[in-house]
User: Fold Class I SAM-dependent methyltransferase from Corynebacterium canis.
Amino acid sequence: MEDPHRAQGAGATKDCRRVVGTACGRRWCRGRGVVTQIATFFYTGRMYFDEKAFQWDTPHVLERSAVQARLLREHWGERDLETALEFGCGTGTVTYALGDCAARFIGYDTSENMLEVYRSKAPSERYTTVSSLAEIPAASLDVVFTSMVLHHVENVRETLATLAEKLRPGGLLSVLDLDAGSESFHHGVDVQVFHHGFAREEFAKLLQELGFTVLKFETAYEGVKVREDGTENPYRTFLITAEKGAAA
Assistant:
């Protein structure tokens, strides 16, 4: 079924993921630990995404992923990237749209069905998947990227700290997610949401506290969510890319 969304402006897309949950304020630095909260997402999100995995790659999703991949390429520039991890990779639509941006791609997701579809599209051994971040050695990645995932994660600080551990010094972290004030975006699908977007200044400060230097922070795309009653609710997404310091 087509999502009743449309996007506007540069880098416009027509599709977005609908989710539902209760607002919790900015609980970025509280929670039960990264292992526990990711396990919670397994329970609350996996069933939904397992069910949707084999019908996930709609034309709108592919269009949106192509826009996201283009923006990521612009942020990464001409860097020589050996190994890239997509955190919350889904079926790999963003990864595969990135083409030859990295020599090797790893996809991580909590939905085994999503990973099954991801693997089925792999053109070569350059593309692999993991179902646990523990499978990835520390300081082994050149870039970690994630798109529209962190608002599903309760303790964002601990999650980002874990991802930082997997990056080499000088490695890049790119996050695309909702701006603060995106409550209307989370509507109509029964999967856990902990954050209705993130305040940009606070998010950048969090990355700096984790030892990153912010390189680029911009609006990714803006859209309008159309409810069943015809009400239009705007939302906006950002893309931030930061570099891991030597001591992070």
Notes: Confidence is low (pLDDT under 50) at residues 1-44. The longest strand covers residues 212-226.
